[in-house]
Design goal:
6 helices; alpha+beta; 7 strands; seven-stranded antiparallel β-sheet; 31% helix; 21% strand; single chain; globular
Amino acid sequence: MVLPLDSRWADAIWRSPYRLRFELSTGGSPISMFISAFGRARRLARAALPLDRPLAIVADYPSAYWVITPDQRISPDTSVFELLKEMGVPTDAAEASWKSPFYPANEDDEDRELCEHRAVRLGWDEADILLWNNIAQNIGVEPRAPVLSKLADPEQGIVVNAYDDRGMDVIALSPAPIEHLYRRFDTWLLDYDRPRMAEVFGE
């Protein structure tokens, strides 16, 4: 099953029941939490996406002014993608782009925000920067850019979402591509979500 690279993207992901949830940070100081979260995220991402160049879906952060740091001096003319490029992740050569909510929302919701999405092929050094950026948003580590991102293998229907320092979801449109992760990284699975995962991936 192939993931669509258009405005149907978020709905395809969120409707799938084949979702593994992993705990990333392991406690301690904020720096220790960031280091453990980033290390686990890198290892899980590579196990889930054994590709030379995974696809990244990068979206401008809703209400960017609330999360950007003062030293980045964003202005109405400054693109958040320019800030991400300064961190080492260019998105100009996108394979596809579209506008849609980052998370699925009721089409009648007047308050939903449309984000610009760019789908771009990256090497793992660049993909690591996106993992860093996602994990850094809430824990206060810098540098960071006000973008949200996921890594994916559209052909296999797999998505990796390190949503912050607390956790990472690995989602697929069918169970086969990710069921090996359920056993291989059992000790990292999020405990409160184990009953649901066992129903889907357990023997």
